[in-house]
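Recall the central idea of this unit: under ordinary conditions, the amino acid sequence of a chain determines the structure it adopts. In this exercise we apply that idea directly, starting from the sequence alone.
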Amino acid sequence: MAFELDGRVAIITGAAKGIGKRTAERLSEAGARVVLTDVDEKGVKAVAAQLGDRARAIRHDVTSQQEWKQVVASVEKNEGRLDVLVNNAGIILSRPFLETTLEEFRRVNAINVEGAFIGMQSAVPLMQQSAKTTPHGGSIVNLSSIYGQVVGRSHSAYAASKGAVRLLTKAVAVELARVPLGRIRVNSVHPGPTETDLGTSGLHQAVEQGTYPSVEAGIEQGKTLFPMGRWGQVDDIASVILFLASDASKFMTGAELTVDGGYTLL
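Accordingly, the structure predicted from this sequence is:
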């Protein structure tokens, strides 16, 4: 079946919870061996323990070039190959533009953009070697956001970072598509508002700013903005990532898949 990942190895960043955790579960269920990374060492080890023998965890700061090298070296030594990279780790900042500090702007971009950039540069050489032994090559999936496509109020730093991820994905896709460079597909996923700690963190900030009386009120108000009448769930996003990781997407590269329940249509 096209969604099977038997014999494949995947790195998933930000895998201690939320979309990253569910992605790890879905890829593992499809047969992949998954290497889970996160700055939350305790959390990511708990996820790996839950998944069993086909999973292991590494404490990992995605902004560190040295730690990325160590993660990829560990995968080469222990798994011997790398077929899928999911750059999921990220943070969000909901703050008016004039109140956003340069330090905050740089931190958001360091994690969201530089993390993906360093990750791809670190992983691609091993992925190129592994791609020679699979019919349709490897797959990189970068997590962007609908705010990488449209603007969001009080999200200037976050939107800038996710817009950068969107076009970085397309630029790298062009370079890695051809056979001499390893047949690696590079696509981006653009979730809309999703019920995760990250997805609702903006609501916590909005409550502090007086926009909503409570997070629950913000969630209920937000439902009215979705044509499908609900927020996204982690499985909605993880299922699309599985599709892009698998051979079902073998002729797709540089694509941006919006998963938002129609949020951006209105």
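The domain at 9-192+232-256 is CATH 3.40.50.720 (Rossmann fold).
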